[in-house]
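Entry for phosphoenolpyruvate complex. Fields follow.
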Amino acid sequence: MHDPQMTPQPGAAGSRSRRVPFVVANWKMHLTRGPAERLARDLIRALAEVRGVEVAICPPATALDVVGRVLQGSPLLLGAQTMHEETHGAFTGEISAPMLLDLGCRCVILGHSERRQWYGETDDALARKVRSAISHKLLPIICVGERLVEREAGQTDALVTMQVEAAVSGVGEHPDVSLVVAYEPVWAIGTGHTATGEEANRVAALIRWVVASRCGAAAGNALRVLYGGSVKPDNIHEFVRQPEIDGALVGGASLDAGAFAAIVRAAAERGA
Ligand code: PEP
């Protein structure tokens, strides 16, 4: 495997009060290039006046180029929905960190539950991807979260701890590293059900503690923890008012410029 140099990344750092809220749009496998370009333009317009929040748009791979061109010169970051851990090679259908950088990506969603469920992505592969993303100065947005059966069995904390430990296992003690972890209960994704703000906050605190214990206190303090799972304009306040939650990973509602802009505004108010 490529031997990455674990170099520091741009992004949020510092004390809890200085963590910049972060909202990520995951467009999943939606939108061909034309509609993707239009939505990106609508979002730039809708968010023109919003300050104090970082926003990333993660279109499908086929629209990264066109959306990246629209986002150029705007504060919105371009992100990908997955990547391979190797830089190049015989991996049909895969996309590497250098390819994403070439398209202007600044961040990448890794370990989304849909990748774990449908494409067999393992914690080991996720750890390699996280390491590769960091070494290429792509901000990793690491997704963790329990399935309904694990929640009902009271295994949420153990499962999330294991997922986070595995994901950052290749990072090591690293005071300058920028990481984002999205707590996404699988049973809440695309279902209209959500965790309560208190539940999500408790798991977010656990995630921060695990990162601090594995990567050091500074990394834990700078870590931004997002909540994901059926976030909408009418429930976002419940999450962003929680002290351990620094923003949201948004699927369905990110396909509507008005709804997504309302979510971003709510996160910005939390940061103000
Ligand atoms: C997601 O895709 O990560 C997600 C949280 O989706 P939704 O907002 O549609 O539940």
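NOTE: The longest strand covers residues 139-144.
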